[in-house]
From TrEMBL:
It comes from the Bacteria. Gene3D superfamilies: 3.30.70.100. This is NIPSNAP family protein. It comes from Roseiconus nitratireducens. The keyword Signal applies. Residues 1-25 form the signal peptide. InterPro entries: Dimeric_a/b-barrel, NIPSNAP.
Length: 252
């Protein structure tokens, strides 16, 4: 796996967990976040292919669909799909992809979809859920909700301290300020497994996101937790991508 690289201002490599349970209760479970960039005008066809064929064929081959999103950025909203799937193990992932790609039904759907070749090779990162990653339900969501993908790179030797801060303080403080935690993961492959935290949160609206981040940053409890956590400065500024769930996404 290549080291995380920043793409179109948001995605360092190309994340969730089962809707009912985000924690990896079964040993070996891995999540895979994939990012597809279509040629101009082909995103609708790609979404139709996932909606009408791909998700069903994923299930047939042991791949669990978790969530599908399109960035809200004006340009990326025209050609980018980010999705997360789950495998029983890394070995199972390899076998599932092989059988999926060899499936005649998939080949027919791909050929007839009108998507053609992607503009860029799919990006993929395998991940495991952090031990504090919460359960998730779709209760109370509406069309104004917006998801936010964030990627943190800790300074050398500080990932455990960053995890502790999220586990013991940040998630509760997010909730206090109207930010819903969806899931938290670490890449499985070195060197990113040593310093990277990837997470998704949800806001009631883009306007609510702005207000929540403002009040969160001003919260004295957050300032105290940040100061005492031992995390220090991140190795790089956090990367953030706002996204809308597709109409066929299990997580919405």
């Amino acid at each position: 796996m290549n080291r995380v690289q920043v793409r179109f201002c948001f995605l360092p490599v190309a994340l969730l967990f089962a809707c009912a349970c985000c924690t990896s209760a079964a040993r070996g479970q891995v999540y895979e976040m994939r990012t597809y960039t279509t040629n101009d005008g082909k995103l609708d066809e790609l979404n139709a292919r996932f909606r009408d064929h791909t998700m069903r064929l994923f299930k047939k081959h042991g791949i669990e669909s978790i969530g599908y999103w399109v960035p809200t950025d004006a340009e990326k909203s025209k050609n980018t799909l980010i999705y997360i799937i789950k495998h029983a193990s890394r070995e199972a992932a390899k076998e599932s992809w092989q059988s999926f790609l060899a499936d005649p039904e998939w080949k027919k759907a791909a050929q007839e979809s009108g998507v053609g070749r992607l503009a860029e090779r799919p990006e993929s990162v395998y991940m495991t859920a952090a031990d504090y990653s919460p359960s998730w339900t779709n209760d109370g969501n509406d069309d104004d909700d917006v998801f936010e993908l964030r990627i943190y790179k800790a300074a050398e030797g500080k990932l455990d301290a960053l995890d502790a801060r999220f586990r013991d303080h940040t998630i509760d403080l997010f909730s206090r300020h109207g930010i819903k935690s969806v899931g938290y993961w670490h890449p499985t492959d070195d060197p990113d497994s040593e310093d990277t935290l990837i997470y998704i949160i949800e806001h009631d609206s883009p306007e609510a996101a702005k207000e929540s981040w403002k009040t969160f940053g001003q919260d004295p409890d957050w300032k105290k937790a940040a100061r005492e956590s031992g995390v220090g400065r991140l190795a790089k500024p956090p990367i953030s991508v706002y996204m809308n769930a597709t109409d066929y996404s299990p997580i919405r």
